[in-house]
Each structure stands twice: as structure tokens, then as C-alpha cells.
Amino acid sequence: MSKILEEVLAANHTYATKFGDKAHLPMPPGRHFAILTCMDARLDPAKYAGLAEGDAHVIRNAGGRATDDAIRSLVISYKLLGTCEWFIIHHTDCGMETFTNKIMNNLLSSSLKTAALEASGWRDIGPGPGSSEGKYINWLTINNQAESVIEDIQRIRYHPLVPAYIPIYGYIYDVKSGKLIQVPGATEVGKAS
Amino acid sequence: MSKILEEVLAANHTYATKFGDKAHLPMPPGRHFAILTCMDARLDPAKYAGLAEGDAHVIRNAGGRATDDAIRSLVISYKLLGTCEWFIIHHTDCGMETFTNKIMNNLLSSSLKTAALEASGWRDIGPGPGSSEGKYINWLTINNQAESVIEDIQRIRYHPLVPAYIPIYGYIYDVKSGKLIQVPGATEVGKAS
């Protein structure tokens, strides 16, 4: 068993022993909202937004982007589980700002090792051929966080399955301070009158 | 300002005042792993798996499914940010077990109100026409959690951009106990020899 797997299961054991009355939480989010944010390891939405178990849906992907999958999740979130306010939260120093589709596809074409593995030779996994499959994926890189938040709110706002009465708040999480910074103009995007 | 927005910003203010040395966390996950899990409000992966800020990537969508978007995120996670172990964690009592594509599309065709709003008349948002756009979305509902975990591991395992050396662990989180339960056979799916 890997060290990480052992640690995760040990942490889970500790969590479960103090689980208490969380066993009785209902399925629909108690505070009726959802957050779409980045997968970045430095972000803990429960901590930075004050969520307890049972409070809110949390959707996360690389960048916190309004992908088809995020929209699938948000539509399920409101239609079946009653959320009626949404937050789109990108963050400073995001990995998505550090590359382009072309860079990513070139890296993957040359090897499927991680960049770190390539540099360190940490594990002998052979030369590992690359793959040109990257070109079938839009990596959804980000040039400017404020613009990407507004773009993503816009995409969600105008989706035919998203009702106009749901407010969508746009914020950037600052990884240096832990603060949520409002994106100017974001919450006004396509707002229902 | 909505009550929820006020509460989130107040919680964030408290979090930021005690941010401490988290300002210095590097971008790559310190513990080199990623978790793909469901957006369900009852799940807090940081708590159930023992994550501190900076430890691991967390990807979440409705069901914790291995969508194209989840795979986009996982590939970025290993290739650019060095994760080398992945967890796929679905859970008991998942909303995705409660409907079918047909049911969802019928609901959306009749109205874009939430089911709860329809029942309670909580806010007068007018009759709100439905939309037939649902039929362009595969909602990725779940019949059986153990099967969906194995299916999703399989989809990731055989993706041409996923290297064979990354172990993928399959678990089901039990919302009644907080425990992670191993899915029999899941970690063996397509495992590199």
C-alpha cells in the first residue's frame, strides 16, 4: 500500500470516528448555493467560504471553468437539489495562466511523464512515448483572471437551461492573502432585470 | 446583498485574518495526489481524506464522474503539477442515482424552476418556460456506485494521455458513517504490470 493511500485511509478513519450527527444530513444543500472553483491544492472552498458538511455544492476543475461538465453539474444542482445562488471563483497564481494549448500538446507529444519526473528521473518508468491526443482537448488556459471569470459567468448566464433568476457572483481568490476579491462588473453580467 | 453572499464574505474575512504562512504555499500539490469526487454538499474531501491547503488537487462534479473535463483536469494535474496517484470517490445516497436522462429532460422541458420552487411557490418568478436543451446533455446518472467507480477508473485508465504508472484508487464514501469503502476490484482495473 502506498504511503499516500495509508495516510488518506488513516485520516478518514479519524474523521469517521468523530462523524456524529452528520449521518442525518439530507441530500439537498442546506444553504441552497453552489460554488464553481479551481482544483488548485491551495484552495479549500469549505474553509475560504465557511462551509460545513451539508451546506453547498462544490464543483471543481482545472481553472474553475464553465465547461459543459460544470454546467451539467450546476443544472442538476438547481433543478433537482434546489440551489438558487452560484459563485464562480477563480484565483491568483493559477496554473492555467502558465501554458497554452500548443505548449501542453507539445509536452504531451514528447512524453507522458510529469515535467518533474522528466527532470529528476525520480522513478524509472522507461522513456514513455508521448501522445498526440492532446490536440483533441481544449485545455481552457487563462490569460486574465478577471476576464475568465466574466467569460465563464457569461457562458453560464446565457445557457438555455440556466434560469435568469439565479444570481451568479464572480470572485477571485487571492492565494497570498486568502481573500475573495470581487470581479468588477461580474455580477452584473446578463443579470435578470 | 443576499444573506448568503454576506455570510460567505464574512466567513472569508475571518479565514483571511488567520491566513498565516499559507501565503507561501507553492502551486504544485505538496503530497502529489489528486481526488476526483462528487459535488455533493455532504462531502468535504479535505476533511474526509485529511487534506491541508496545498496538499492535493480536488476535482468535483455531479457524481464524481470521469468526464472529459475531469480528464482534462487530471492530465494537467500530473503532467504540469506532478500528481502521481489518483483517487476516484463516489458516495452512497448520491443524487445521480435518483433520476434518468429521460426524467431530467422531461422536468427541464416543463420548467426551469427548481423542483422545490415549483412545489412551494417560494418566489414569484413567473411560469418560466421550460427548455428542450436537456436532450443535448448526458447527465451521467448512476445505477450502481461500485459499477460507476469501476467504469470511471476504466475510462481514465485507458485514456491515451494517462500514463500506466499512475495508480487509481476506487472508493465509495458512506454518507452515513463518513467512511471510505474500497470498491472491490477497482484498483486492479487495467493496472500496469
TrEMBL record, chains A, B:
Organism for this UniProt entry: Candidatus Nitrosoglobus terrae
Entry note: cofactor: Binds 1 zinc ion per subunit.
SUPFAM superfamilies xref list: beta-carbonic anhydrase, cab
Entry keyword GTP-binding: no
Database matches in Pfam families: Pro_CA
Cofactor(s) in the UniProt record: Zn(2+)
Positions of Zn(2+) binding: C38, D40, H91, C94
Coiled-coil region list: none
InterPro entries: Carbonic_anhydrase (IPR001765), Carbonic_anhydrase_sf (IPR036874)
Alphabetized GO MF terms: carbonate dehydratase activity; zinc ion binding
Family as reported in the entry's similarity comment: Belongs to the beta-class carbonic anhydrase family.
KW ATP-binding (keyword) present: no
Name of the protein in question: Carbonic anhydrase
Keyword list, A-Z: Metal-binding, Zinc
